[in-house]
Amino acid sequence: MLSVDGLDVLDGKKASFRKHGYVVGPHRHLVVDGFRQSTEAVAAFRFSPVRESNANEKYGNARDVGVIGAAIFNERGTNPWSEREVRRRLKANPFPGGFATPP
Predict the structure, then answer these.
(1) What is the rounded average pLDDT for all residues in the chain?
(2) Beta-bridge partners for 36
(3) Is 87 among the domain residues?
(4) What is the count of structural domains for the chain?
(5) Measured between alpha carbons, how far is 80 from 64 in angstroms, rounded to an integer?
(6) Would the CA dihedral through 77, 81, 86, 89 be positive or negative?
(7) Does the first or last residue of the chain, that is N or C, have fewer Cβ atoms within 10 Å of its Cβ?
């Protein structure tokens, strides 16, 4: 599940763990250009004042504006919590390129 401003990027409706989301293969990446409107059309993400946000205008809810959400699940039958994997993750650098410069 991937969401922007509390809205699912696949249908633009309220995000939920019950939705199927994207399936991304190992060592692959995913580029999401906006809210999917059909198999061919995408509505680009736009920065706007909170009152003009898609979430507020469509659903009257600005609670999650500015939040990018992702639910990531391991492949069925795998153990992401093995001792070796936990050690590897604890040593990982979450910001290998550094931080963004302030505006």
Answers:
(1) 89
(2) 42
(3) yes
(4) 1
(5) 29
(6) positive
(7) C
What is the model's pLDDT at position 15? Answer: 92
CB 53 within 8 A of CB 5: yes
Average pLDDT of the residues in 67-87 = 88
Alpha carbon distance 69, 67 (integer Å): 6
83 found inside a domain: yes
Q: Residue 79's pLDDT is what?
A: 86
Mean pLDDT of 5-21: 91
Strands 34-36 and 68-70: unpaired
Does 20 map to a domain? Answer: yes
Amino acid identity for residue 27 in this structure: H
Range of the domain at 63: 1-96
For residue 27, is pLDDT > 90? Answer: no
In DSSP notation, 45-99 reads -----GGGSHHHHHHS--TTTT-EEE---PPTT--TT-HHHHHHHHT--S-TT-P
CB 35 within 8 A of CB 12: yes
